[in-house]
Amino acid sequence: MKYRTCVAITENNPKKLAIIVKNTLKKSDFVEIRFDFLKPKDVPDALELVKKQLGKCVCTLRPKSEGGMFTGSENERKSIIKLIAVYNPFLLDIEFNALQKDKQFLNSMKNSRVKILVSWHDFKKTPSLINLNKKLRDMKKLSEYVKIVTMAKTVNEAVKILSLYNDSSKIKLIAFAMGEEAKFTRILCLHMGSPFTYVSLKKAIAPGQFSLDEIKSMN
What we know:
The chain has a domain at 5-119 and 185-218: Alpha-Beta Barrel (TIM Barrel), CATH 3.20.20. With 219 residues, it is α/β, with parallel strands linked by helices. It is 37% helix and 20% strand. It has helices at 14-24, 43-50, 74-86, 96-101, 103-111, 129-139, 155-162, 185-191, 212-218, and strands at 5-9, 30-34, 57-60, 91-95, 116-122, 145-151, 172-178, 197-199. Helix 1 (14-24) runs parallel beside helix 2. The chain is built from 9 helices and 8 strands. An 8-stranded parallel sheet has the order 7-6-5-4-3-2-1-8.
């Protein structure tokens, strides 16, 4: 099978970002634009520069509390997310916790035409299978696109994540584990139904992440 890739881009300059996005999409199916690496005031310019490519972009504005770089207030972050939604990217990644805590925000996102990728990360561990399955059930009520990522220190923990695909009918699930022991989940998730796997351009930005070239060499 051809492995579908999404390259995570962490550029902090809007013009450079636009060039990288355009060039990367010649080699990758999708890109993830990490808008949290930009200054908030630069996001509108960046959106204008990449708007022709946004149909193949996953847009993310990750807060510090969720492993991202955005340090402003949550209200400021939500207003920027609403702006990104206007541009209707392929997917807009929004954290499950943010949607769950603010029903008004959730409803405004549902009323926009953007497709939401509901995401949840545990950067320290892989919870029990019971907890993971409950999380999946709650998340898929909000969107057909769901992303669950945990940290796995053993192969057994990593396998736990892949078992989520047993309960993923009718949704598009992206579930894998971070860490060197769990690298195989970033490939196997594709065989189990994930629409793509996240990769880096060169240096990994997450533990156990493959580069685009490494994945291409496996095709």
